[in-house]
Each structure stands twice: as structure tokens, then as C-alpha cells.
Amino acid sequence: MKHKLIYPDESSVLFEILELKTNQVIFASTMEEKAIEVFQYLENGAGFNGETPKYLAQNYDPRDLE
Questions:
Q1: 9 neighbors 23 (Cβ within 8 angstroms)
Q2: 21-31 per-position pLDDT tens digit
Q3: Which of 24, 38, 41, 51 could disulfide-pair with 57, CB 3.0 to 4.6 Å?
Q4: Using one digit for the tens of pLDDT, what is the confidence trace for 36-46?
Q5: Domains in the chain: how many in total?
Q6: What is the span of the domain harbouring residue 8?
Q7: How far is CA 54 from CA 4, 7, 27, 39, 61, in A?
Q8: Which class for 57: exposed (0-12), middle (13-18), buried (19 or more C-beta within 10 A)?
Q9: How far is CA 43 from CA 11, 12, 52, 61, 63, in A?
């Protein structure tokens, strides 16, 4: 597994996808279905295969989106 889907908790309303190798959150959404869709897409080899360059990852705390 290259990514981890993080479910919302008391401090966030976002579903986040953490890239394990780089320890970066590379996707965040309030919609569970969209997060699961992107997670599966990434796990099947899409994107940067678990090595997203830092300049393409979000440069802010994704929990501050809303």
C-alpha cells in the first residue's frame, strides 16, 4: 500500500489521502465517495506512484480549506 485514507475526526471534516513514502497529504475532500475514488485510482498506479514531488503537493494544511 502506497497511500492511507484518513477519515475525519473531531478536528476535521475532511477525508485525506496520505502518501506514505513522502508523508504528504496529497488530496483532501469533504466527500467520502470522491476520496475513495481518488484513493483507489492512486493505489492502482496513477499519479506519481507514491512519490509525489513536494512542489506538487499541497503547500498548506488541508484542514484549513474551509
A1: no
A2: 999 999 999 99
A3: 24
A4: 999 999 999 88
A5: 1
A6: 3-64
A7: 17, 23, 13, 18, 14
A8: middle
A9: 26, 24, 13, 23, 23
